[in-house]
Design goal:
alpha+beta, three-stranded antiparallel β-sheet, 50% helix, rod-shaped
């Protein structure tokens, strides 16, 4: 069985979601990236991103499904997007208070 790239993503997580989506549709697929098993996600860019591979005979159906699939960004709620910003604001405030107390 020859594997071909159905779609390339920027991040491993997106490729894993696409893989799961394809498998729910009955297409065996693989999410592949060279980022040391997720330990070094920043090197994934240098190796061409995260790829979803399928059998050559499933390529057409898989690409149709993946390109009609809504973006993973659309599945993230507004509250989830704002959480990291709120966390950074809290960290910044705590750091400022510590610095003021030390000096």
């Amino acid at each position: 069985m020859k594997l071909v790239v159905a779609k390339t993503y920027s991040h491993r997580d997106e490729a894993e979601l696409a893989k799961n989506y394809l498998e729910k549709q009955g297409i065996k697929s693989y999410a592949m990236t060279d980022d040391m098993g997720g330990a070094r996600p920043e090197i994934g860019w240098g190796t061409g991103g995260a790829k979803v591979k399928v059998a050559e005979e499933d390529f057409r159906q898989a690409t149709e499904l993946l390109y009609e699939q809504p973006s993973t960004e659309q599945h993230v709620s507004t509250k989830q997007k704002k959480k990291p910003l709120a966390l950074w604001i809290i960290v910044a405030v705590v750091l400022i208070v510590v610095i003021v107390l030390l000096f």
